Amino acid sequence: MELKVCGITTTEDIVELITLDISRLGFIFYHQSKRYVYGKLIEEGLQKIPERIKKTGVFVNASVPEIEQAIERYKLDSIQLHGDETPEFCNYFRGKAEVIKTISIRDKSSFETTRLFHDACDLFLFDTHSENYGGTGRTFNWQWLDAYTSEKSFYLSGGIGLENFVKILKINHPALTGIDVNSKFEIRPGIKDVEKIKQLIELMKG
């Protein structure tokens, strides 16, 4: 199972995290987020990230130029579109970067939305519904995942912590590729608790 650590804002965290078995580091380009990356992280920090770890930019209803500029400036491998983007909007970026479409899960019927985006993205991320586009620190009912019948891979997000990770190990879904963690592994918003992340990785390996 892959691990994505999201909400990185400091070079210090990057230096520590790249020594661990992590698949993706996420950087939030949404100005209303407490973990908004502009003004906090310089390109030198991103240059330390090895190729095995995908640099992922998280955007919410951003414009095409804004996303294109971020891909170029920060050499992003992936973009995570976390807002109300259309399939056409997502598809535009195919080939420019890996496209991850976040699906906001309100109830079991929310998975119907994946049919619209199936051919417009490379990967799904399922997160707990919020009017503020994520960041709730809450899980949705993971039993609802049975409603997702596609073979397209997905990451699971929303309120994942050390206390409930064992439940993820019991999820038997062939398309579950990885987990996305953020607020449960922080000292404060944007500053990661690396020791907790190490504990999570040990649980994942076990």
Mean pLDDT rating: 95
Specify Rg, calculated over alpha carbons.
16 Å
Rounded to the nearest angstrom, the distance between the terminal CA atoms is: 11 Å
Oligomer: single chain
Main sheet record: 8 strands, parallel, barrel
Number of strands: 10
Describe the strand arrangement of the main beta sheet, using strand numbers: 1-2-3-4-5-6-7-8
How many domain modules? Answer: 1
Structural class comes to alpha/beta
Low-pLDDT parts are none
How many alpha or pi helices?
A: 7
Content of β-strand: 15-25%
Helix content: 10-25%
Task: Explain the layout of strands and helices.
Blueprint: E1 2-5, H1 11-17, E2 24-28, H2 43-46, E3 54-59, H3 64-74, E4 78-81, H4 87-92, E5 98-105, H5 114-117, E6 123-128, E7 154-157, H6 165-169, E8 176-181, E9 186-188, E10 191-192, H7 194-205
Word description of this protein:
With 206 residues, the protein is an alpha/beta fold. It has one domain: TIM Barrel (Alpha-Beta Barrel), CATH 3.20.20.70. The protein is 24% helix and 23% strand. The protein has 7 helices and 10 strands. It has helices spanning 11-17, 43-46, 64-74, 87-92, 114-117, 165-169, 194-205; strands at residues 2-5, 24-28, 54-59, 78-81, 98-105, 123-128, 154-157, 176-181, 186-188, 191-192. An 8-stranded parallel beta barrel has the order 1-2-3-4-5-6-7-8. It has a two-stranded antiparallel sheet with strand order 9-10. Strand 4, helix 4 and strand 5 form a beta-alpha-beta unit. It starts with a strand and ends with a helix. The model has no long low-confidence stretch (mean pLDDT 95).
